[in-house]
């Protein structure tokens, strides 16, 4: 990632509705990281959990 000037950081913070400080704080770092992603960019891996189904006759209790 390129170095950002305080003016660039302030502009980004203002565009995102963050507290404008011109400093790269944790909230701004998080928002910068999130801004790199677009809808559909993340690949989701859904692994279904094994379902357990039992009849009342096989219930252990």
Write a structural description.
The chain is an all-alpha fold. The chain has a domain at 6-35. Helix content is 34%, strand content 0%. The chain contains 2 helices and no strands. The mean pLDDT is 79.
DSSP summary, beta strand count: 0
Sheet having the most strands: none
Write the H/E string, N to C: HH
Q: How does the overall form come out from the CA principal axes?
A: rod-shaped
The secondary structure category is mainly alpha
Q: How many DSSP H or I helices? A: 2
Overall mean pLDDT score? 79
**How far apart lie the N and C ends?**
59 Å
Low-confidence stretches: none
β-strand percent reads under 5%
Which short descriptors sum up this protein?
61 residues, rod-shaped, mainly alpha, 2 helices
Summarize the structure.
With 61 residues, the chain is an all-alpha fold. The protein contains two helices and no strands.
